[in-house]
Model the fold of this input.
Amino acid sequence: MIKRWNKFFYRNSKIGSDPDSSWKLQNEQMKTNEVYKLINFAEGGTLIEAYDEGGIHESYEEKKARMKPFIKAEIEDKFLYPEVNRVDEKKYRKYLKAQEALSKLHNRNKENETRLQIDANGNQHDIGQSMVSLASVISQYDVHSCYWTLDRRGGVGETALHMLFVNNTPKTLTIAKILLELYPQMAVDAYMGPDYFGETCLHFAIINNSMEAFKVLLETRYCDVHARARGKFFVPVDIKLGAEVLQKDNYEGLAYYGEYPLSFAASVGNDEMYDMLLQYGADWTKADSFGNTALHLTVIHNRIDMYHHAVTHVTTKADPSVQNKAGLTPLSLAAKLGRSEMFKAILEISATKFWSYSRMICNAYPLTNLDTIAPNGDTNWNSGLMEIIQGDDDDHLNMLEGGVVTSLLDQKWKSFARRKYFRLFIFHVIHIIFLSCAVYLRPFDINLILGGTDASSIARYVFEILTCIGCVIAIYYIIREIVIEGILGFVQNLKTVPSRLLYYLGCVLMLLCIPFRIAKLVSVEDWLLAFAIPFLWSYFLFFARGLSLTGPFVTMIYTMIKTDILRFSIIYVILLGTSGVVFFYLFNDLNIFAFQTELGSFMTLLQMSLGEFDYDAVKSSRYPPLSIILFVVYMLMVHILLLSMLIAMMTRTYETIAAKTQKEWRRQWASIVIILERSYRNEEKLNFQNKYSKPIHATRMTSEGPAEDNAPLQVNVEDRGLLWVHDRGVGSGERKAVIGGRWKKTGSMAAKIQRSMVDEKNENKFESTKYSRHGVPHPDISERRKQDDQYTMPDSN
Done:
């Protein structure tokens, strides 16, 4: 309970509140830690001094030979194991417990803020922030190889080689290369502290995009190409803030690159490093703590070219259908994150091209990860289409406009949704007509409600029976839908369309009226009927969402209720409750009707907030001046301020949705299509899918489907795709040709202009020479030309 309480209020009970704690720790140990004496963040230390002794004219081999005795004395003899050592969990637990002693010591000594780090040898070092809990690190620990001694590392578990890569300058990288050539086993070491746990120099080389360092590390043959950088620095933001599980599957994090070196290379888009890692045995199927592979990381970091490279690799093709722990494939992940360009690129890469003519092209797009119907007929909640419809960003709205997604929804609408939509609408209209007739024919006399025998009562009985039959049919389909989709799927449907929930409640309330009428509890029946009637009528909002004329306005209503009215109601209830108690106290025992009871006081204030009030009643309190002051304050706060704010908020919501009316309607329409789809049995959904999809592996294809007469009608969904014939527009090759042509045309025009300028210049030079003395140009050639024109030879005629 205490853990949940702290998590609710602080959000970081698991991790220290200072995000720069590791940097502070390293800086505070800069003068005492032996690792930082070798190399520090300011590119200083004994390693740098030893490197600079030879001067700038010393060759690399000479530097290496000169530094070798120093490195042996200062590094090998002091910091390195005789050979690569396997660090077991027991030894690592002892190391971290020594680190955690800092936190306990700090709690006992808050007065002078002294916090000491105790290493495995018992040495104490001052630091500035408590460590991550031991359990949070041990839970993700696996056996690590270690060449640099565990008890003589930097403040966050790093070695001198790590520090050289952190600095990332030509000088430090050269020193790192010398160390790796002398002691290639150093490449095996990873950060052992909780903050950067598991990060190796190979990760640094990829992030720094240093191909030279990358090759040197791989050539040592000691690099672990499956090393996992799993410290808190590399996790998404919500996990870093202390959440037990990922709250949002957007994987937002400044340094979230997927733990593995191959995922790092995919995240930064370096295909050359990606290929080399594969050659050295890296496995692209390795998934990080969230189940994301290198292919998922290309989507998260929006690397379209890298995704194409991975799935079309010559030797090791990545499988685009791989799922992470959230059940998301790269396609559905791109849809969830709103990466429209990545989503389109993945679709185009997976498409099967049948024919093209000029700018027209016929492609078949696989439905496995795109369609909401799974291969077995169940609803694919993690499909690309489902993620787009459930998304709430503008990017998701844009993905519903045009393209494969719109074509798929259109095919679903034509195949089954349109027919069921209008069938349900007609059924509901008839149901409401029966309900309205039964209500309008209801007598005021209680005795005639059950025992009437006149024509009006008989007609009322008929309409009431028909209304109840309609409610029974509706409840039957509710049960049927629960059986088909399960209770979770049914709840998901209700969350999408609140009006359906009200409609189902109205049907239940109508049926509950039957036993209370038999028991002659007419008052209870009236209460039930008063709620059932508006609930049943509200179902028209479901059908209004499917029309382009009314759909955006229904969306506005839902949005205003969820946001504007909810926020207004919270503040309004607080003010109403406060004022209601005070006014009831001021008018208690004064026999003023408006404030005679507790409920009456609240209702009077509610009426006052709408602008209707009796000022004489307000002055009749026990303390008139006080009641008048409270009345003015209440009217200013509620009637003027809160209501004006509500109007302003609703206006903003209206303008936001009105600016994207067509897009909002398309999303509501798409939601209706999917809701109607989920009401069918699995066999029916697969039959519908066969209608709007075509076999991908057909040998000949037309715009209508397979050209063969004996083409199979039933094909598994993995072998079926959405056939889409469309205008592909101007391709990249055509764009290059057009741009090249324009440049050629511009270049030829420029050449003509240049030639004309040169000719004019030569002509001017010729004229200047003609009218010159001793080679000196005449000052005014134009005047001389005018004189020559006056002495032209006359025409022969």
Observations:
- Strands lie at 80-87, 116-118, 124-126, 144-148, 352-357, 360-366, 694-695, 701-702, 705-706, 720-727.
